[in-house]
Amino acid sequence: MPCSRYWRGCPSNPLWSSSSPGRSPSPPPPTARQKLNYYCRHPWSFLSRCARSLKPERRVPRKTPSFESFIEQEIHALSPIFLPGELNAQELDFDAYLAGSDQIWTSCEPEKLLDFAPAGKRIAYAASAAWGKQPPEWYALAQREFPKFSAISVREKHGVEICWKAGAETVEVVLDPTLLLDRREYSRLTEGRPPYFSEPCVLGYFLNIDQLSQLPWKQVKEAGKKMSAPLRIIPLQGAECCIPEKYSISPNPYEFLQSFQEALCIITNSFHGTVFALIMRKPFITILQKGETAVQNTRIFSLLESLGLEDRIYHPEKGSMAGQLNRPINWTAVERNWEALRIHSMEFLKNAIQQCTSATRHG
Predict the structure, then answer these.
(1) Is residue 59 predicted with pLDDT exceeding 70?
(2) How many CA atoms does the CB half-sphere of 267 hold within 13 Å?
(3) pTM, whole model, 2 decimals?
(4) CB 308 within 8 Å of CB 141
(5) Burial readout 26-63 (b: 16 or more C-beta within 10 A, e: otherwise)
(6) Residue 146 contacts residue 168 (beta carbons within 8 Å)
(7) What residue spans of 65-182 are helical by DSSP H?
(8) 4 pLDDT higher than 80
(9) Is the model's pLDDT at 155 over the cut of 90?
(10) CB 144 within 8 A of CB 120
(11) Buried residues in 319-343 as b, exposed as e (16+ CB within 10 A)
(12) Cα–Cα separations (whole angstroms), residue 343 to 230, 300, 302, 336
């Protein structure tokens, strides 16, 4: 079965850089028109970018994590890479077309509903969105495109009802793709590498904040002191502008995995921060996001509820953060629930692909 990769471009996409030897040239940087179209569809990204530009620059420039070597070594795919708007102009002939996962159905973008692909060859795996926040145009587009899918699955339970309202007949809940692999498969990527941290630490992973008041910052620092370990934080999507530099780190993809492997415990407000704490079997606390991005909390609720870990959400009224971090986790029960979900998710994907390839053979 042929395969391809399609990267949904945005102005900060690291793949819009110089090409690597032996590979097809990377697409050129986005034009002003492409940037304008992107920010019109994602006004919050534009406002966040403007707000960050108004903040005073740090004295020491931050290191930008390098992804090129990781892509070269670990991601194997065929050319071409398509830019937005190019897919409908291509004569594609693949056995199946897969859409997923993170936030693909929040905005009204036809290519994310695979409008360029033939009916009967489309699969949505763990599609995610700010469910219930989509514009009316998205519902109209989904009602047109959903009947052309062979199988539809979402990552959050709340997404099932929304997809039903948009005309999908059958919708299943499956695991985020990162949870289909176990710890051993991720550890393979870091074998033979020197330790990332010089000593065990408390790891924070925060995003979607632009001021410390959006976090229980005093409790976060206190947790590090109670653990008698230094606090190290990976800040993203605005958090890098307010997290004090002495705590901040900028790992590449390999070091990102190592930071979760080597940490004593994890404090995060991120869904995928929660995911990798689970994968590495680390004590963790998840802080819910506030304001415009609070809608992203649904994915955290959905995952933790399915694993019986709702008590890992931080509640100030339940005592200190360090105390909540120290509550034991029944990893045997978590693994049992997780394995059942993994089997269900893999069966969904296998059956969906078989349905598409069967249609291709008999078409």
Answers:
(1) no
(2) 29
(3) 0.78
(4) no
(5) bbeebeeebeeebbebbeeebebeeeeeeeeeeeeeee
(6) yes
(7) 68-74, 136-145, 158-165
(8) no
(9) yes
(10) no
(11) eebbebbeeebeeeeeeeebeebbe
(12) 38, 20, 18, 11
Q: What are phi and psi of 25, to 5 degrees?
A: -55, 140
Percentage of residues of the chain with pLDDT beyond 70: 80
Tokens of 285: 């606390």
Residues 95, 2: Cα–Cα separation, whole Å: 7
Eight-state DSSP code of residue 287: P
Whose CA is closest to 244, among 256, 260, 230?
Answer: 230
**Cβ–Cβ < 8 Å for 261, 176:** no
Q: Where are the alpha helices (DSSP H) in 238-330?
A: 253-262, 271-279, 297-307, 321-325
Alpha-carbon distances of 142 from 82, 108, 115, 126, rounded to whole Å: 22, 9, 10, 16
| Beta carbons within 10 angstroms of residue 346's beta carbon | 13
- Is there a contact between 188 and 359 (Cβ–Cβ < 8 Å)? no
Task: Give the DSSP per-residue string, 313-347.
Answer: B--GGG--HHHHHTS---HHHHHHHHHHHHHHHHH
pLDDT digits (tens, 9 = 90+) for 273-309: 999 999 999 999 999 999 888 988 989 999 999 999 9
| pLDDT tier, 351 (very low <50, low <70, confident <90, very high otherwise) | very high
Two tokens, residue 61: 């420039």
Q: In this structure, which amino acid lies at residue 155?
A: R
pLDDT exceeding 90 applies to what percent of the chain? 66
Residue range 210-236: mean pLDDT, rounded: 94
Bridge-based pairing of strands 202-207 and 265-268 is parallel
Cα end-to-end span (Å), the chain: 15
